[in-house]
Amino acid sequence: MREYRFLAPAQLFINGKWLSVQRFGQAQTLDDAAAKMAAKNRSTFLSAEAFNAIGFTVDELRRYASISSHGNASPEFLDKKDRAIEAAKAELAALNPQQEVTAING
Amino acid sequence: MANYTSPMQRRIFLQRQPNLSSVANTSGIWSSTGAQYIPVEANALNLSPNEPKTALNFVHGSPASLGSIQGRKSASWSLNAPIFPNGVQAVAPDTDLLWQSVFGGPGFLATGTVFGNAWVYGHTDFASVPLTILSFSHGQTVTASEYIIGALVERCTLNFNTDILAMSVSGPAVAEGDVETFSVLDAEAKGGLTAFPVEPSSFAYNGQAVHGYGGTLSYQVGSGSFTPMSKMCNGFTVDITTGVGMPNDAVDTLYPYATLFGPRAASGAMTFLNNDDAVLSDLKAIARTNEKISVQFVLGSIPGQRMGVVLHGLQLVTPTMRDNSNSVTIDFGSAMASVDPGGSEDVSIFFG
After folding, report:
1. Left, alpha or beta for B291 (phi > 0: left; psi -120 to 50: alpha)?
2. Of A10, A16, A103, Cβ closest to residue B204
3. Whole-prediction pTM value?
4. In this complex, is the C-beta atom of A67 within 8 Å of any C-beta atom belonging to chain B?
5. Can you tell me the distance from the alpha carbon of B157 to that of B212, in angstroms, rounded to the nearest whole number?
6. How far is CA B150 from the centre of its chain?
7. Given B34, B106, B305, which is nearest A67 (Cβ)?
8. Do the beta carbons of residue B97 and residue B36 sit within 8 Å?
């Protein structure tokens, strides 16, 4: 089991239970099989350690919890978000080497 | 006492097939690898077997009808699926397989679009992406679950300006089967399976529902800049007819057996509240003079939540006016997109 942070909304159905990810940076603990499944299904997430290393502030995660708020987010937050997506890209590639879809920065 | 099934139990999965007639499987057991769950409303999916009887109209000394024999078999389907952008820029949406079947191949990563980087779908000529569509009745293992194999998209309609952005797709398929009668299906209708598929125990879907409005509709003459049509268009529909079909006339099978490629078409229909704005006046003149334009609709403003469509070589139909109680509608009807000789890019869809 490992803690991950999600970068976009997702709904996961894992072993008979729904897990709902609605908030940017929402923590979710997944086992290896579930993480691989989510990676194959194009969910975008990264390890909690890598996410924390980027340095999102508590205020940013509260203010920009909804992805709908990102249109008016601060440049500092959007830069961190881009770096988080880049980090996620590398981790997801390791989880799912055959992934045909790759997240990249805008 | 019987347990009655509910449409609320349904879970819908899409999966790409290795070829028109085979479902992904390992030694006859369905392989769920690559199966994508998509959230839809209860009545959004229709899987229809087409198994007509052939009447035996022999005279037999009585006016009563004789029994029939089984005719050729096939199937058809339709689906109204919400379009959830992935949530992360330039990543394919969960409706990816439907778009692949519309366009005949996978999308690709493009830079320099109106969104910057985007996941783009454009036509792959003379290619098809056959799908398996599975409808499981969750918690019910003996009835109501069904599938359709060899599903191709023949038509895709995008009705923008709706409360929830969605795509309506439909087309032919090789065969339909269900859990209750799987054991008596013809081999072709089993698609290589030896058992009815089991609902996946783990899956995911991404993003969230978005409006079909809140975008910028604009047009381009020649290679000029795009001119927005601001606050006047109240109806915009894109219709793509893929031209794919399946022959069902082989001497050795009751079922469709190949993909055929006929003419393809894309069109855009726009309605406006009539006014004296120079933009609308220009569009009316363009329709009269049969000038070709590109029309672009860019929906949403948040990276990862955006979708766009571009129709190229659009030739507007001279509009008709229609009186309403307090306004006049200008209806441009359905305008065909077009290409220069040898071209393929009449329509493209992008997510960014």
Report:
1. beta
2. A10
3. 0.94
4. yes
5. 13
6. 14
7. B305
8. yes
Contact A44, B234 (CB under 8 A): no
A28 in reach of chain B (CB within 8 A): no
CA distances from B90 to A64, A85, B238, B261 (A): 20, 11, 22, 30
DSSP code at position B199: P
What's B20's DSSP letter?
T
- Where are the alpha helices (H) located in chain B, listed in sequence order? 96-103, 187-190, 278-289
Element (H, E) at B310: strand B307-315
Instruction: Tokens for B305, please give them.
Output: 């939540």
Sign for the CA dihedral angle at B277, B280, B286, B292 comes to positive
Q: Pick from B39, B106, B204: which is nearest to A38 by CB?
A: B204
Tell me the count of A-B CB pairs closer than 8 A. 100
Over its length of 352 residues, how does chain B's per-residue pLDDT go in tens digits? 898 999 999 999 999 999 999 999 999 999 999 999 999 999 999 999 999 999 999 999 999 999 999 999 999 999 999 999 999 999 999 999 999 999 999 999 999 999 999 999 999 999 999 999 999 999 888 999 999 999 999 999 999 999 999 999 999 999 999 999 999 999 999 999 999 999 999 999 999 999 999 999 999 999 899 999 999 999 999 999 999 999 999 999 999 999 999 999 999 999 999 999 999 999 999 999 999 999 999 999 999 999 999 999 999 999 999 999 999 999 999 999 999 998 889 999 999 9
- Contact (CB<8Å) A7/B88: yes
Distance from the Cα of A14 to chain B's closest Cα (Å) equals 4
Nearest-by-Cβ selection for A106 from B33, B96, B116: B116
Q: Provide the residue type at B54 as one letter.
A: T
Chain B nearest CA to A49, separation (Å): 20
Contact A13 B202 (CB under 8 A): yes
Which positions ≥6 away from B183 have C-beta within 8 Å? Answer: none
Task: Say how far apart CA B284 and CA B107 lie, in whole Å.
Answer: 35
What is the ipTM for the molecules in this complex?
A: 0.85
Which has the closest alpha carbon to B205: A40, A32, A98? Answer: A40
